[in-house]
Amino acid sequence: MRIQKLPHQFQSAKVILQRIQDAGFEAYFVGGCVRDTLLGVPLHDVDIATSAYPQEVKQLFKKTIDTGIEHGTVTVMDHGRAYEITTFRTESAYQDFRRPDKVEFVRSLAEDLKRRDLTINALAMDVNGQVIDLFAGLADLKNRVIRAVGDPHERFHEDALRMMRTVRFASKLDFKVEDSTLAAIAENAELLQKIAVERIYVEWTKLLLGKNPQRGLAAFFKTGLYQYCPLFFDKGKVLKQLLQFPAFTLQTEEGAWTLFCFLSGLSLRTATKLLKAWKSSNEMLKTVQKTLRILQIEQEKKLTSWDEYQAGLDCLLYANEAATVMGKGKNAAAIAQHYERLPIKTRHELAINGGDLLHFLAIKPSPYIGQLLDQLERAVVSGQLPNERQVLLQAAVTAQQNHLE
Ligand SMILES: Nc1ccn([C@@H]2O[C@H](COP(=O)(O)OP(=O)(O)OP(=O)(O)O)[C@@H](O)[C@H]2O)c(=O)n1
Ligand SMILES: [Mg+2]
């Protein structure tokens, strides 16, 4: 099969391929970029594989960077663009089911492709758009099937993360996982424990944000793979619940995590524990805490202006994203409109600050000033007082008098 019209990302890269070929080596586009071109979805990066060894690649171009030279990857800089070029390789020494430290460079494309994870990722394309399909990846793309290349056990032993990648692609593309590939995940699931949490995290979030998360989640659940993710051993019930909802999609990692924590019935404290076990960023952690709090409050009562103010618009929208999956979503524009009506959005917008209070009340700094400011902030947000300097200072005087009595 020949692809007639290549996306623009390939145009400049073709020059690079040609240069390698002119020097007597083979060079192809490989992996995700070929898959995504065939699927007609936007590409993020264009990977090149070659029979030239890293040192040989370096000799062909003026400006190169040794990105991962021990793994065969050299970055070529050309007209301000970066191209990752990786020598054909087989991963000879496997350590502990992780990506091997050592790779063996080979001159044959076939050797390289047969060590790739999935048939849809083992396609190569030459400079003319001709697709090289040694493992029936084209048929699998057409039939919407995720299948390991060759023996799935071998592929998952080479790198156990591939099991997560398999379920992630099922979700991302809305493809079915082929039976023997699925069975091999069930059999090898515990190998996932060998994989760094950070790498699992990437696949897990991509799974949740895919086109049909329930497809990926079903495989993740059925194979028992979930049990080997951090603190997920008891999350089968949550996964089942997610599978019972009508079809859904999620747009943000924040919304996805909050949904998961909420369905798990986690408190802010236990949600924190979970996200920390997953090595989530502090920023993500804080956002999920705020968003989870909103969902919890909404279970009991209508949100007050103060609740909305404390959460901020982003978290309100993340909470709505999670609520939508659970069939309790509202109109996002209406949420934003309601939020816009708040008299102030942050403490900075309050017509007075701590310094004003100290000055006007002629008192020494103390925690009392902070409390007073909190009170005034709350009164303004909830509409009890207008956000006007004179009014707030007067209210501060009255509050201080009451405080002293
Ligand atoms: N554990 C892995 C990771 C990657 N690959 C191979 O390396 C290519 C590039 O990997 P990567 O960029 O991580 O994934 P993509 O398939 O390109 O997917 P994405 O769209 O997420 O980048 C894959 O297509 C696949 O051929 C693999 O065989 N085993
Ligand atoms: Mg990629």
UniProtKB/TrEMBL annotation:
ATP binds at residues 32, 35, 116, 159, 162, 165, 168. Mg(2+) binds at residues 45, 47. CTP binds at residues 32, 35, 116, 159, 162, 165, 168. The keyword Metal-binding applies. The gene is cca. Residues 248-396 form the CCA-adding enzyme C-terminal domain. Residues 27-147 form the Poly A polymerase head domain. This is CCA-adding enzyme. It comes from Liquorilactobacillus satsumensis DSM 16230 = JCM 12392. Catalyzes the addition and repair of the essential 3'-terminal CCA sequence in tRNAs without using a nucleic acid template. Adds these three nucleotides in the order of C, C, and A to the tRNA nucleotide-73, using CTP and ATP as substrates and producing inorganic pyrophosphate. tRNA 3'-terminal CCA addition is required both for tRNA processing and repair. Also involved in tRNA surveillance by mediating tandem CCA addition to generate a CCACCA at the 3' terminus of unstable tRNAs. While stable tRNAs receive only 3'-terminal CCA, unstable tRNAs are marked with CCACCA and rapidly degraded. CDD domains: NT_ClassII-CCAase. A single active site specifically recognizes both ATP and CTP and is responsible for their addition. GO terms for biological process: RNA repair; tRNA 3'-terminal CCA addition. Residues 174-228 form the tRNA nucleotidyltransferase/poly(A) polymerase RNA and SrmB- binding domain. The keyword Magnesium applies. NCBIfam families: PRK13299.1. It is an enzyme of class 2 (transferase). It catalyses: a tRNA with a 3' CCA end + 2 CTP + ATP = a tRNA with a 3' CCACCA end + 3 diphosphate; a tRNA precursor + 2 CTP + ATP = a tRNA with a 3' CCA end + 3 diphosphate. Its EC number is 2.7.7.72. Transmembrane segments: none annotated. InterPro entries: Bact_CCA-adding_enz_type3_sf, CCA-adding_enz_C, CCA-adding_enz_firmicutes, NT_sf, PolA_pol_head_dom, PolyA_RNA-bd.
